[in-house]
Specification:
By secondary structure, this protein is an alpha+beta fold. 39% of the residues lie in helices and 32% in strands. It has three helices and five strands, in the order ββαβααββ.
C-alpha cells in the first residue's frame, strides 16, 4: 500500500491505500462531473436549479456526499431510482 520514489538524498513515500471513504469521495466527484456534463449537453444555463435522479446503486456514496453534490450542481433535490442507467436531470 505504499509508493516510494527517491532522487538523490530525497525520498518520498505515499500511502496509496484506497479507503472506503476515499472511494466514496471519488464516486461523488464522478457524479458531479457526470451531472455537469449532462447539464452542458442539455443546454441548461449555469444558474439553472435542477432535480437529480441517480441509480439506486449510487446511493451510498451520493448520500455520504449529498451536500457537496447538490451544492456543486445547484440541485434542489437528489433522488434514487431502481432500473435507471446513469444520471437523470430536469429543471426545477
Amino acid at each position: 500500500g505504499w509508493s516510494v520514489a527517491s532522487e538523490g538524498t530525497l525520498t518520498v513515500a505515499l500511502d496509496i491505500t484506497i479507503t472506503p471513504e476515499l472511494k466514496q469521495e471519488g464516486d461523488a466527484r464522478d457524479i458531479v462531473r457526470a451531472i455537469q456534463t449532462l447539464r452542458k449537453s442539455s443546454g441548461f444555463e449555469i444558474t439553472d436549479r435542477i432535480k437529480v435522479t441517480l441509480p439506486a446503486e449510487a446511493r451510498e456514496s451520493a448520500e455520504a456526499f449529498r451536500e457537496y453534490i447538490t451544492t456543486q450542481v445547484l440541485a434542489v433535490s437528489m433522488d434514487f431510482a431502481e432500473g435507471i442507467e446513469g444520471v437523470k436531470i430536469e429543471k426545477a
